[in-house]
Specification:
- 62% of the residues lie in helices and 0% in strands.
- It is an all-alpha fold and 99 residues long.
Length: 99
């Protein structure tokens, strides 16, 4: 496991609400007929909401985690596999395996 992936899982365990919001907004888009969506757009919505709701400038979602949220969503919701377009990570390219 890469250091970035390990850091993502640590962040996810400490902040499960981020994935809950990610899934909520993604399912809203799907239920409104979206066939594909940018995972960056979903994270942007979450960032906006937290900036407005919390006034906490310290609240950060690392850009390196965004693709992991998309992959996690598709892994937990296999009926929506391919909804987000993801590229293989550098490690996956080296190993020639894809999540």
């Amino acid at each position: 496991m890469t250091a970035t992936k390990q850091e993502f899982w640590e962040f996810h365990k400490a902040n499960p609400h981020v994935y809950d919001e990610f899934e909520k907004y993604t399912l809203v888009a799907i239920n409104r007929g979206a066939k594909h969506l940018s995972h960056w757009l979903v994270i942007g919505r979450i960032r906006y909401d937290y900036a407005i709701k919390t006034n906490n400038s310290d609240y950060k979602i690392n850009n390196n985690y965004i693709a992991f949220y998309a992959r996690l969503f598709m892994a937990l919701n296999p009926q929506h596999d391919g909804f987000f377009k993801t590229k293989p990570t550098k490690q996956e390219k080296r190993e020639k395996t894809y999540a």
